Amino acid sequence: MPFKRPLSSHTSDDSESASSHDGPSKRLSSPWNIERDKAVLVYILRAKIHPETMSELAMLVENYKIERVNKSHQGSSVVSELNLELTTDVEKADVIVTATNMRQRLERHINWRIAKTKAIVTPLWLQDSVKSGRLLPCGSYVAVRDSEDETSRNQDTSSGNSFYSPSGAEKEGSWQTEQDELIDAAEVELLSHNAKYSCLRPSPLVCPNQSLVKEIDIIRRGRNIEGEERSMVSYSRAISVIKAYPRVITEHNIQDIRKLPFLGEKILSMIEEFLKTGRITEAQTMLADPRFQSLSTFITIHGIGPYTARRLYGLGLRTLEELERYYEVKPGVSDEETMSLLDADASANTEAAAEQSIKIGLALRHDLSQTIPREEVEDINRTIMRELSHIQKGCKSVIAGGYRRGKSQSSDVDIVVTHTDWNLGSQKVKGLCRKLVQRLHEQGFVTHVMHLSGFHEHNVLRTHHWDSLEKALTVFVWPHNSSQRRVYRRVDLIFAAPEVFWTAVVGWTGSTMFERDLRLWAKQQKGMKFDSSGISRRHDSKLYHPRTERDVFKVLGLIYIHPTLRNADA
Ligand code: DCP
Ligand code: MG
C-alpha cells in the first residue's frame, strides 16, 4: 500500500483563510466605466490555464469578496473599492481573463463579436488588481494582440494612469506535466460536473470550494478511522462532487447544489452551516476529540491502518512516543533487516513483515512525514532509471500518483516502469523489480523494502489481473540538498508488462475516488473489470491491451481526462 499522507495541522493550514490582501485599500478614483458598488464581472477562460491556477484565480476573487464584505460589516473605514464577481456567462462579463495570446485560439472558445466588446487580459491583471486592492488599467495587461484597442477602449482609461508596471505578464499560460500533453479545453467541455461517476467529471487539484471540501474531509477521515466504510464512502462521494463543481457555492446558488448527485440532506445542511459560519460543528467536534487525534496520528505511520490504530488505542496507547516504546523503536534508528524480503518468496504479507514495516515507519517518521517537492521526485526517478539501465536497456517510466495530478508536494514517489519493446517487453521486465531493488540497495539508495510482490508464474492463464505487475514498496535514502544529512523517502516501484503499462499508469495516477469510480463504471456500465493490473471483459475474460493512456479511456468508453483533472479526493 502506498504510504499514508501525514496529518496536516487543522487549525491554521487553510490556505484560503490564510490569504490576506495587504495592498492599498484607500479609495482611489476608478479607471473603470462601472458604477460604484456594481461588481466588475470577470470571466476566466479555462483553456490553457492549469487547473490549479484556474482554482487559485477563482479563489482569489472569492476570498477578496469575502474579506471585503467582512470589512464592510465590521464598519471598517478601509473597505476596498475593488468589487469583483466571477461569471460563467461570457456575454455578461466586463473582463475576460485568458492565458491565450492569439485571437484564433480565443475564437475557438468565445465568439469574437462578443469578445471584442470586453477587456481581454492576462491572469496577471487579476492577481495584480487583487494585490493592489484596485482595478488596474487593462491596457498594461492586454492578452490578445488583436484586442489591444478594444481592451483599452472597453475600459475608460481617462482617469487611470498606468501606475502599475507588470512584470512577466506573458509568463502565465500553458502548463504541462512531464511527458503529458496539454489539457484540451474542447475535450474538457465534453465532461459534465454533475455526472454520477467521478471518471466523467473534471476534478481540479484545488477547487473553488476547497475550504468546504477540507471541512467535510475531516468528517470523512473520522468515519475512516472508526471503520465506518459506507459512511466514509458517502462523504468521499460528496467531496468528489463538490471538487468538480466549477462555481463558488454561496447562499444564492445553493439550489443548484441540491441538483448534484450524492449530496443528501445531511451534507446539504452541513454545507449551509458552513456558508453561514465558515465551519461545520461535527467536524470541529471531531478535531477536538482526543480519540480522533490519536487515531489520526497513528494512521500516518506506514503499515498502520484504521483497524490496527483502533487496536493500539484499545491497548491504552495515545501518542507516537507511546507507540515507539510499545514497538521498541528508537527514532531515526532502523535496522535494515527488511531487505531480507528480497530473498523471501511471497512472504511480504506475513504478520512479521507487517510489524516490521510499522517499525520502519515509526523510526523514520520524521523524514517520511516530510513532503517531497516535484524537482526531487523527478531526480529520484532519474536516478532509479539510470540504475535500471545498468541492468536492462530500453525501459521507460512514468511518475504517477499525486505528482502526475499536479501536486506541488508528494508524500511518496510512485513510479511505473515498463519496457519499450511491445512484443518482447513482457519477458524483459520479468524479475526486474527485484533485481533493481537489489542493485539500488547495493548502491546505497534503498535501505528497506516494506513489501515486494511479483508475477505469479503459476497463473499461466492469467485469469487474474494481479499477476501482471511487480511491486516494491521501498525506503529510498538520498542526500538532502540543504545539508549533508541523508533523507529517507518512500518510493513505490511498479513494473508492468507493456500490455498493461498504461492501465497501471492510470491505476496509480489516482486519485483514490477516481480509481474507485473507474472500477465501478467498468463493472456497472461496461461489463468489464478494471484495476491497475489490467482491463478485461467479465463474461469471457477477454483481456485488453491499450497502447496509450487515451486507449485506456477509449476501451472503457470514457472521454479522456487529463491527469490534473483526476483530483476527485480532498
Ligand atoms: N492507488 C489505488 N489503490 C492502491 C494503490 C494506489 O487506487 N491500492 C492509486 C490511488 C492513488 C495512487 O495510486 O492516488 C497513488 O497512491 P498514493 O497513496 O501514493 O497517493 P497519491 O500519490 O495520490 O498522493 P501522495 O502525495 O499522498 O502520495
Ligand atoms: Mg503518491
UniProtKB/TrEMBL annotation:
Reaction equation(s) it catalyzes: DNA(n) + a 2'-deoxyribonucleoside 5'-triphosphate = DNA(n+1) + diphosphate
Keyword DNA damage part of the UniProt annotation: yes
Residue stretches making up the BRCT domain: 75-143
Transmembrane region(s): none
UniProt-listed GO biological process terms: double-strand break repair via nonhomologous end joining
Keyword terms: DNA damage, DNA repair, DNA replication, DNA synthesis, DNA-directed DNA polymerase, Lyase, Nucleotidyltransferase, Nucleus, Transferase
Family: Belongs to the DNA polymerase type-X family.
Protein name, per record: DNA polymerase
Organism: Suillus subaureus
Upper taxonomic lineage: Eukaryota, Fungi, Dikarya, Basidiomycota, Agaricomycotina
